[in-house]
């Protein structure tokens, strides 16, 4: 993975010194809260329901074991002994003190981490495929480009005060695991007829109160033109985006107002006008960054794993085989798998890991996966390079730590925002609903159902991605009571779709049985190998609406 | 800016403490406490005005941030809170925090 150089470290240490001074001035009364608020937000420090919350950047979701241990240490020293991995591939601490924050940032800096670009109207943390570099269906590793965009966007003077926050995601795989069509800019690595690498450029996607699927504005952009083209998009947005209305300030609103053709024409004109004057990345710098993402030293050939029969004769429990089926993903290197560590045990809190668990995962990464960990936007973790031979010993250790749940991509692999249990913006709780669903659905039903997504947001801002789930659940407040809207048919991937609301919101005590009723209706009506979205497309929503409201 | 609650509802004054962000309520003795149990309640316009003045002074003195008047029902216990938001803010998350469960992970 990429390691900071002296320039990166200087930038971060100067930023901490600056923020330390700002905190001191705030506590001394030399800065008002109105003056201080944007400064703390630029350093990832929010004020939530019960306390401050510090959001730490994990660029494109990649962590070293050393960094993971540092996060565990920070959670013990300054917080309540756990962290929350987010749908932006970051981590949040829910209980830091303002006066401790500069010291937390200093501890982060010791392992080349920071909280920059985790708040404010700037280009936020870049996200990508959590299987980048190892996915069997990958055209090219997107991480070097994610790193290049990170370096280019950090403190970019022209784009530090955009009309609103700005999110960029990219993938190099055939299957979109980074939800690129729901980002302000989504980049899909493509190869043209000459065999050159470039990007298809999507713009104007997003969730929130106005969910929009991004439009493709360029089918192939040569890789060398990436930064000038991104600058052209951002320049059009920066000049023409709505700064007068918070709810209309995202680029998706601008693109819709201008129309895709006019928007694209404006970007192309800006690009043609400025591309020769925009400093671009020297090829040697691209190669230097690509070298940082060279594959680890795989064993070739990797030793063979025991057969299933032999494992069963050795008394290996069925739990392992279930886990291997769902959580171990095809790898481009023969004899290896990418392993998803589920942070969704039955009754658990999606995305949460205790300090002890983080330390165990760091040790397992060292022992089994070249010391690297990825964070997924589904709020799980990944060990990307595990020998098939090691899967069982790894699972035993994970299972002993409460991390061996075999439910990746199944209905209990729920995305849930922090909701009203933590968040100042939330209208309703998300986590308890998620816990109830994951306790209710039996393993038998999960396996019978197969891949199925449930996503829960506690408010219209959609941090829980409810628009892009098979079943989306949106918490709303009605006169102090928590109600939940149920929606169906969303998809964050290649066949991007926005879920449709089934009908009036239902009370919290009806959500779990409603979800199960919808799943049962799917199981009773699906044809062979039909996914939920295919069944929904064939039958329409009415049969599910009836199932939902029969519960009431 | 403080939000304006229903003019007829009894209210208590709440904010977050500047140093650590913890939710606090103005007590009957005039201090900021981490529980609303002994919060001073305003029932008249003049009592509300007095709470607002205290809030402004506490902000100026770097004690708290984000003060607002929080409606209460006049009942006791959970019924005191008129919304889930205020109840959770006062009583904490309704879920067991992960670190509380560490003992089951064979440390």
Q: How would you characterize the overall build of this protein?
A:
The complex is a heterodimer of chains A (552) and B (107). In chain A, strands 16, 17, 18, 19, 20 and 21 form a six-stranded mixed beta sheet that branches. Chain A is globular, with a radius of gyration of 23 Å. Chain A contains 18 helices and 21 strands. Chain A has 552 residues and is α+β, with helices and mostly antiparallel strands. In chain A, helix 1 (6-28) runs antiparallel to helix 4 (101-110), helix 7 crosses helix 8 (260-274) and helix 16 (511-525) crosses helix 18. With 107 residues, chain B is an alpha+beta fold. Chain B is 22% helix and 21% strand. Chain B contains two helices and five strands; from the N terminus they run ββββαβα. Chain B has helices at 45-60, 84-91; strands at residues 11-17, 23-26, 32-33, 41-42, 64-71. In chain B, strands 1, 2, 3, 4 and 5 form a five-stranded antiparallel beta sheet that branches. Chain B is globular and about 45 Å long. The N and C termini of chain B lie far apart (47 Å). Residues 102-107 of chain B have low confidence and may be disordered. The interface between A and B is large, with 43 and 32 residues.
What labels would you give this structure?
heterodimer, A: 552 residues, alpha+beta, 6-stranded mixed sheet, 18 helices, 21 strands, 17% strand, globular, B: 107 residues, 5-stranded antiparallel sheet, 21% strand, disordered C terminus
């Amino acid at each position: 993975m990429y390691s900071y150089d002296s320039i990166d470290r200087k930038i971060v240490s100067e930023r901490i010194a600056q923020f330390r001074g700002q905190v001191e001035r705030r506590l001394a009364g030399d800065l008002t809260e109105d003056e201080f608020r944007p400064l703390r937000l630029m350093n990832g420090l929010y004020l939530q329901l019960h306390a401050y919350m510090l959001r730490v950047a994990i660029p494109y979701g990649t962590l070293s074991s050393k960094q993971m241990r540092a996060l565990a240490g920070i959670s013990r020293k300054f917080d309540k002994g756990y962290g929350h991995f987010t749908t932006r591939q970051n981590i949040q601490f829910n209980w830091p003190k303002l006066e401790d924050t500069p010291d937390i940032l200093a501890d982060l800096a010791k392992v080349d981490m920071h909280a920059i670009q985790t708040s404010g109207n700037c280009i936020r943390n870049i996200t990508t495929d959590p299987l980048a570099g190892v996915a069997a269906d990958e055209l090219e590793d997107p991480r070097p480009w994610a790193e290049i965009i990170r370096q280019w966007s950090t403190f970019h003077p022209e784009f530090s005060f955009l009309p609103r926050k700005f999110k960029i995601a990219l993938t190099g795989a055939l299957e979109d695991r980074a939800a690129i069509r729901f980002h302000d800019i989504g980049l899909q690595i493509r190869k043209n007829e000459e065999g050159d690498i470039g990007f298809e450029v999507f713009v104007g996607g997003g969730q929130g109160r106005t969910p929009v699927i991004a439009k493709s504005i360029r089918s192939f952009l040569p890789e060398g033109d990436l930064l000038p083209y991104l600058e052209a998009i951002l320049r059009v947005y920066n000049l023409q985006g709505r700064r007068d209305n918070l709810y209309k300030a995202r680029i998706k609103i601008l693109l819709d107002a201008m129309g895709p053709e006019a928007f694209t024409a404006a970007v192309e004109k800006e690009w043609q006008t400025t591309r020769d004057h925009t400093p671009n990345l020297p090829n040697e710098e691209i190669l230097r960054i690509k070298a940082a993402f060279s594959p680890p030293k795989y064993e070739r050939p990797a030793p063979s794993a025991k057969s299933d029969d032999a494992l069963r004769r050795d008394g290996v429990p069925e739990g392992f085989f279930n886990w291997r089926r769902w959580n171990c993903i095809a790898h481009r290197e023969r004899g290896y798998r990418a392993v998803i560590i589920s942070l969704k045990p039955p009754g658990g809190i999606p995305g949460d890991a205790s300090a002890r668990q983080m330390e165990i995962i760091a040790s397992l990464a060292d022992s089994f996966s070249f010391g690297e960990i990825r964070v997924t936007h589904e709020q799980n973790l990944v060990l990307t390079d595990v020998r098939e031979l090691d899967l069982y010993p790894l699972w035993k250790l994970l299972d002993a730590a409460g991390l061996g749940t075999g439910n990746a991509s199944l209905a209990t692999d729920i995305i849930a925002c922090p909701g009203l249990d933590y968040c100042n913006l939330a209208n309703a709780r998300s986590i308890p609903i998620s816990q109830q669903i994951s306790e209710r659905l039996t393993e038998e039903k999960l396996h019978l159902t197969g891949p199925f997504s449930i996503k829960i947001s506690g408010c219209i801002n959609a941090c829980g991605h409810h628009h892009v789930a098979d079943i989306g659940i949106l918490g709303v407040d009605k006169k102090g009571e928590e109600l939940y809207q149920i929606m169906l048919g969303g998809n964050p991937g290649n066949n991007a779709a926005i879920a449709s609301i089934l009908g009036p919101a239902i009370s919290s005590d009806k959500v779990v049985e409603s979800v199960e009723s919808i799943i049962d209706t799917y199981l009773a009506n699906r044809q062979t190998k039909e996914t939920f979205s295919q069944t929904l497309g064939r039958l329409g929503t009415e049969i599910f609406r009836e199932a939902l409201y029969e519960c009431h | 800016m403080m939000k304006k609650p229903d003019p007829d509802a009894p209210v208590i004054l709440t904010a977050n403490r500047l140093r650590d962000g913890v939710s606090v309520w103005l007590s009957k003795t005039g201090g900021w406490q981490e529980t609303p149990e002994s919060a001073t309640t305003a029932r008249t316009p003049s009592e509300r005005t007095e709470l607002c003045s205290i809030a402004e002074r506490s902000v100026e003195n770097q004690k708290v941030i984000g003060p607002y008047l929080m409606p209460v029902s006049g009942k006791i216990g959970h019924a005191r809170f008129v919304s889930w938001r205020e109840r959770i803010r006062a009583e904490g998350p309704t879920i067991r925090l992960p670190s509380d469960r560490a003992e089951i992970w064979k440390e």
